[in-house]
Amino acid sequence: MRAVAFVAQMKKGELASIGRIASERGIPREFLAKILKELTRAGILVSFQGVTGGYRLAKPAKEISFLDVIEAMEGRVAVNLCVDGGHCDCTEEKGCEIRPFFVRQQEYIEKSLKKQTFGGLGGDR
Prior knowledge:
Blueprint: H1 2-8, H2 18-25, H3 29-41, E1 45-48, E2 54-57, H4 66-74, H5 99-115
Antiparallel strand pairs: 1-2
Helix pairs in contact: 1-2, 2-3
């Protein structure tokens, strides 16, 4: 999240080097390299090779949500196994009086994360 937030605040046409992101955000370079690779693979960032290379957003910051980045790195967000897309082993799933609560929370969290974009952080590249 911090790496994408940094890149989102870059000036239009400017590239963020891995060294600069690591230094400015206090992220170990080796760990950051893995993160940036995943974010590039997910279509959130674009990578440019070479001495003057670096990273920029693949689309405008206002089109990249917090949910996009979290799911690119971690997979689907789930507050509980019973709302994690069929991973619930509960034998009471169909008649469970607790599950509707978790379904509502899941919807709320997904909606909130989808609504918050990196464009709302001051960058719109």
